Give the backbone structure.
Amino acid sequence: MRKELRKGKGWTGKDCGGGGRLERYGAIEERYCMTVPEAARRLCVSRNFGYELVKRGELPVIRFGKRLLIPRIALERMLEKDVTR
């Protein structure tokens, strides 16, 4: 496990691309949904701020019990809509 992803250390956001095992092999692109930490890495924000965005209702989320999943297409559409020109 990479140093910045160890428990208690938090994600540093150095590369803003994640680089986790799943993302490295393109598995994230194939899945319909991603976890809040995965979405936060894609947005280049911290994990905690990702959960704060969910709490505020600013990040599209599907709840399965306690599990929170971000639909990939909804996140992409949200980002396309909010781009200022």
Q: What stands out?
A: Residues 18 and 41 are 5 Å apart (CA to CA).
